[in-house]
Write a structure and sequence with these properties.
Strand order of the largest sheet: 1-4
Number of strands: 10
Helix content: 40-55%
Strand content: 5-15%
Low-confidence stretches: none
Radius of gyration: 23 Å
Order of helices and strands: HHEEEEHHEEHHEEEEHHH
Shape: flat
Number of helices: 9
Structural class: alpha+beta
Mean pLDDT: 81
Length: about 230
């Protein structure tokens, strides 16, 4: 997030001006960063871009900074974003797979150019491609899926993707996610069993709620919707 571009975008796209815009410019300007280790102080670095970590305004500013992206891809694909985690969705018939893949490839490359112009970076290593459909359609394709060329990088078809901590398979099932959650919960329970005799009932219940129940309750609506 460029601290010089953000005020311009807030003024042009969202209509902020005068005192409000001056306050934001003052908030972003003259920011420095350094590291202290013992009695040693590192060189002071002037921060001209980045999200302000640990602040309330930081995530909000980033969302406003990325708002142009949704308008840029709206004619090509549907976009869902949560902070810096972005997904593109494109619906097509089986006989349109090749042309749709080309369309999606151009869209992703366009996003990469937009990010470069806005001092951001498209992480090709974390870019995954998922072709989802009914089970019998997946079987009939027999692995004949196109790939996406992202400049020097290539995104190949994945058997599953992780969306905000939830594993979704190509048939839109959450079986893998359920297995991972069960394995994680059993692992925590085995660890708690080792220290059970050192804990009173209230402390044990607190640890179970924190380490086990929190994992089971996360995104339960996904499984409910699937069932």
């Amino acid at each position: 997030m460029d601290h010089n571009l953000l005020p311009q975008r807030l003024e042009r796209q969202f209509g902020l001006c005068d005192t409000v815009l001056q306050f934001i410019q003052s908030y972003l300007s003259v920011r420095t960063f350094h590291v202290v280790y013992g009695d040693v102080l590192s060189l002071v670095v002037h921060v001209m871009c980045s999200v302000l970590q640990g602040s309330v305004l930081g995530p909000l500013f980033f969302i406003l900074y990325m708002a142009d992206l949704a308008d840029r891809v709206s004619s090509t694909a549907s976009l869902h974003a949560y902070a810096d985690d972005t997904q593109l969705y494109l619906h097509f018939r089986r006989d349109e797979m090749a042309s749709s893949a080309d369309q999606l490839e151009r869209c992703v490359l366009d996003i990469g150019h937009w990010m470069s112009a806005n001092r951001l970076k498209l992480n090709a290593d974390k870019t995954k491609l998922l072709f989802s459909s009914l089970g019998h359609c997946c079987a009939s394709l027999k692995g004949s899926y196109p790939v996406l060329k992202l400049g020097a990088d290539t995104a190949v078809k994945s058997s599953h993707v992780c969306l905000l901590g939830v594993d979704i398979s190509l048939d839109l099932s959450v079986d893998r996610h359920v297995s991972d959650v069960c394995a994680g919960c059993f692992c925590r329970l085995r660890q708690l069993r080792r220290i059970r005799r050192s804990l009173d009932s209230d402390s044990l219940a607190t640890l179970i709620y924190a380490a086990v129940n929190s994992r089971m309750d996360y995104c339960t609506r996904v499984g409910h919707a699937k069932s």
